[in-house]
Structure formats: C-alpha cells, structure tokens
C-alpha cells in the first residue's frame, strides 16, 4: 500500500476531531435566540429579530467601527473587481438596493451617478451614520439615500421595484441564504441585476477548508454571523435567475477568506 501524503494525513487527522471541536466552540459562543422569533410577519422589527437577534449596543458600535477602520487592505485588493463589476450599473439602474450596506464602502463605485436612489439595508443600526457619510463623500445626496434596518430574508421593499441589488460580503452572514436569494429575486424588476462579491469555502479536502471548518463557529461569533464554509457561488447559480455570470478568484492577502466569487445574476 502506498504511503499517505502529509497533506492527506493532516486532513484525515483534522476530520477525526473536527466535529467535537466545532460542537464545543459553538456551545461556548452561541447567541441566545430572540424571544421575537415566533412573531408574525406583520411587525418589521420582529422579522429582523427573528433572523438577526439584536446584539448589545456596544457590540454593534464596536463592529461598525472595526468594519470602517480595519478593511483598508481588503478594499485595496478588491478595488479592481468592484470597479469592473459596478461599471455595469452605469446608465442602467436608477433604483438600487444594497443589502448589508455596512459603512457604505461600495458607494464610491456607483453612487455618483445622476438621479439614482439608493436604499441601504443592514441589521446593524449603528452602521447608518457611517453609510450616510460615505454617501455624501461619493456625491449621493442624502435625499436620495435611505438607510433601513432589515435582513436579507425579508427585504423591506415591494415586489419588482429595484433595478439592481448589490451584495458584497453579506450572503456569508444571512441566516437563510436560500430565502435571501428568493427575496433578492422578488424585489428585482424583470431584467434587474444582482451584483455580488462573496468569500466562499475553499476546495473540499484542502487544508484551508479544514481550517475554515474548525474556525467557523468562532468566525460567526466575532464577525456578526459570518460563515467561512458556504458554497455561495453554487447557491446563486441554482437560485433560478435567468442568467448568472459567475467568476472565481483568490485574494492573496486574505488566507482564511481568500477564495471569492463575484459576478452578476439577471432576473
């Protein structure tokens, strides 16, 4: 019998204790579910609480500050991808919803266009002041920007109302990714565009995938629900869009979340 490679041994060893470790870490870091999780759909705040239980104010404020100050290297490496992707909006989209708008890091790529209206949706209300500042810096009048506390599983806008939906590093954090994709399709007009950039799971059997699986519960806790092991590109491709232009890349400066997918899906 041929000897196993050191890579295979590492992954095999990883597999033996991975389940136990993940269970113990998850138990330590689990967030208590909201008491509103059984509420009906008529209360928007209850819907948000159901899918994204409110964190303490200090946590939400800290996370917003960290997101604003500590993503410089990531934004620098992904800038060329964003510029190319968002150029597809020029002259085509007037009503845009950005899911997981965060601190408004994407506004500089598209929000300076004439007569556009942007709705920024995020479950963290502490992001609003940063998003507003980014809108102004990008040349988007605040009269044309609305921040709404909400979640991807229940977008707070009507059917067939958006020319485009933008989501960057957000489908890693929603509770139900399939429901979020259905909501994105619901709010898009026929022919509307979903523009996405997402970090995804590494290849099965790789050492990186093993490490992602080990650290996934910790990542969810410290990064507001972010998952390391989602195959988001596959789920977007299977979500029922009329067409999907899907691309893959690896960002060299981000080892744990280096694998990315980006592209455009058309309703």
UniProtKB/TrEMBL annotation:
Residues 97-196 form the Methyltransferase type domain. InterPro entries: Methyltransf_11 (IPR013216), SAM-dependent_MTases_sf (IPR029063), Thiol_S-MT (IPR052356). Gene3D superfamilies: Vaccinia Virus protein VP39. One of its GO terms (molecular function) is S-adenosylmethionine-dependent methyltransferase activity. SUPFAM superfamilies: S-adenosyl-L-methionine-dependent methyltransferases. It holds the Pfam family Methyltransf_11. It comes from the Eukaryota. PANTHER family: METHYLTRANSFERASE LIKE 7A (PTHR45036:SF1), METHYLTRANSFERASE LIKE 7B (PTHR45036). This is Methyltransferase-like protein 7A.
